[in-house]
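User: What would this chain look like folded?
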Amino acid sequence: MKNSNIKNKIRGAYFTSVVSISLVLLLLGIVGLLMLNAKQMSDYVKENLCFSLIIDNNASEPDIKQFQKTLDTHDFIKSTEYITKDEAAEQLKEDLGEDFVETLGYNPLSPTINVYLNSDYASPDSIAKLESFFMSKSDIVNEVSYQQNLVNLINDNIKKVSIILLALSALFFLISFALLNNTIRLQIYSKRFIINTMKLVGAKKNFIRRPFIASGALQGLISSIIAIALLYGIIYFANAQLGNIMGSIDPWIIALLFVTVAVIGVLLCVFATLLSINKYLRLKTINLYY
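Assistant: Here's the prediction, encoded as structure tokens.
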């Protein structure tokens, strides 16, 4: 019964350690994902900013479509979307939950062409010039509508976010190592008398270290696999909930991140194990009780 309780406690401690290390590696993985893909995510946000060109109601359908084709030939435009008066009315009807056309007796909306820019041209200076460009390009454009405050907010905060992410990654790395070191130190502390016994019977230090290093590496690998699985779940959830926000990310970058998490997990656990095992290899027998 006593041996069974001891084994259960050891299993519990090992499980707790693996979970703790997995969460630490997951945290590092999330920061790494943000760091590796900051540019792609910034481009994604910029390229989903919409410029609505309000078209004159008297413009003919062929003229509007010809103007749309002309817009599509420009390098700074990623894509365009033509929305007729009826389509705009149908969308607004769904948003309002009532038929405003029937209430008013006519459709007050104008046809629009939604323009999405390439990310390099989504800066405030470029947008100001493009607004004038759209107005002067065709007589059928009555107005250019876009969320100017949102554009300025995104561009102003991109650099700040990059600096914050860099600082967070360094901070989390230090915190992660501290947590890993404490977790593994507690594990080895429970085996300090076994280490001392091996020393007393003449075992060499490398021989004593070997099983602990192997155990630490295995623990790091198991924790890494759990962290990678959770990280993959987060990526999948983000794509499902945020409109495939990470769909443009190179799969090799994600694969590289997973490999990096695994390598860091194993190396950190091995390094923390070495620090702890070396401490108890240097201790005298009398100091093991303190």
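The first strand starts at residue 50 and ends at 55. If you want, I can go into more detail on any region.
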